[in-house]
Amino acid sequence: MDVLIKIKDREGVVHELQAPTDMAMNIMELCKAYELPVEGTCGGMAMCASCQCYVLNDVSLPEMGEDEEAMLSEAFYVKSNSRLGCQIPITVDLEGLELELAPES
Fold first, then answer.
1. Is the pTM here over 0.85, yes or no?
2. According to the model, what pLDDT value does residue 47 have?
3. Which residues form the signal peptide (predicted)?
4. E strand map for the chain
């Protein structure tokens, strides 16, 4: 089953993406699959913050882990709604999620 996720790129264009819930993907991998400008330099290990995004609406997300919290404490352009895309697995709970890509560091 796919869920709809909206992602605003750095030019302000909103992309409506169909995200598969049966492939163990995360938001960073989804962005890369749709060729959105997300580096994912560390390969999804919460060690680079190049997939940082801002959560724009109230959708149930998994708790932020220690690694993600530590990385965001050192990253640029961090806001109260910042998350690392690599730490958000795509599940049915994400239906309707709206994100904005953070500026590149």
1. yes
2. 95
3. none
4. 2-8, 14-20, 52-55, 82-84, 98-101
